[in-house]
Design brief:
Strand content: 35-45%
Number of strands: 7
Largest sheet: 7 strands, antiparallel
CATH class: Alpha Beta
Distance between the termini: 46 Å
Oligomer: single chain
Protein name: SRPBCC family protein
InterPro entries: COQ10_START, ORF3, START-like_dom_sf
CATH topology: Alpha-D-Glucose-1,6-Bisphosphate, Chain A, domain 4
Domain Coenzyme Q-binding protein COQ10 START: 11-129
Pfam families: Polyketide_cyc
Radius of gyration: 15 Å
Structural class: alpha+beta
CATH architecture: 2-Layer Sandwich
Number of domains: 1
Length: 142
């Protein structure tokens, strides 16, 4: 059974800067809680290590769609099924970020966590960390 979630947040940064940050997959561990590392292989493929319920899972993911300053979609190509999509929309001087994730829980703990709503809270926390990351970086530059 595939589990999916959606979370949104508004980031006080221009869409070009927010998009550029989402293309820097190696920085995902700084704000995505379950992600331990992402190693870019080339412009499309990356190697991910994630912590799922105390277990490390590794897989390759490919970018399957990328529209500059609008969206980036990726999907695992091996191991655990995972698909992610980040959509961006201008909101005045800010950027609306929507994160959509799908994955197939492998064990009882993952399935239970998804059923009680742990996963959506994690996505909201991840986006809050992303917002803080972007806004702190902007304030240190200006």
């Amino acid at each position: 059974m595939v589990t999916s979630l959606v979370a949104e947040i508004e980031v006080d940064a221009p869409i070009a800067e927010v998009y550029q940050q989402w293309t820097q997959v190696e920085s995902f561990p700084e704000y995505l809680g379950a992600v331990w590392s992402v190693l870019p292989i080339d412009r499309v493929r990356s190697r991910w290590a994630v912590n799922l319920d105390g277990f490390t899972e590794e897989f390759y993911a490919d970018i399957v769609e990328q529209t500059p300053e609008r969206r980036i979609e990726w999907q695992s190509t091996d191991g655990v099924f995972h698909r992610g999509l980040v959509e961006l929309a201008e909101s005045g001087d800010s950027t609306r970020v929507t994160l959509r994730m799908e994955w197939e829980p492998e064990g009882m703990l993952e399935s239970f966590g998804a059923s009680v709503g742990v996963d959506p809270r994690q996505a909201e926390q991840d986006l809050q960390r992303f917002k803080q990351f972007m806004e702190a970086r902007r304030s240190s530059v200006t």
